[in-house]
Amino acid sequence: VLLDILHQGFNDKLASLRGMFGAGAYFAEDPEKIDQYTREDPGHEAPGLERLHSRLYRAGGHQHPGDHIFYCFVVRVTCGACFLSRGFKDKLRDHDSDFQVFVNEDRRELSAVPGSDPRIPYHTLLVQTGKEAKHRIERFREVISFSANRAYPEYLLAYQRV
């Protein structure tokens, strides 16, 4: 997947319909949030990672550092008209405002900005944190983009947990 993103960018058509906040690409401001979704690169000889390793760790260049390597992207996301939410009442409606956040049950497209003429859909969803039961997340805000054209993977970072 890393090589596909490096060469082609993000593909919103592959977004899971089961995502908590819709079928979009999920981004976070805090690396601690994304770290919970990464998988370890078990080492230079790991089966299935030969293509990635051949591009990242070329002969005469950087060497694979060994065990316990993880990867993440630093991404530029254009938020545009951003809908702020602290959680949903159901799969379509915002808990606080009762606003219908998504156009339909697929949850791939956000509803239009109220009063926009012609109608302009919200571009991104920003889910705020909170401790109350109605909030869906407690620690880290999430940004969900529903168009691959609004997210640019600028850097790929390799890191080790400490």
From TrEMBL:
Name of the protein described by the UniProt record: Pats1 protein
SUPFAM superfamilies noted in UniProt: ADP-ribosylation
Native species: Symbiodinium necroappetens
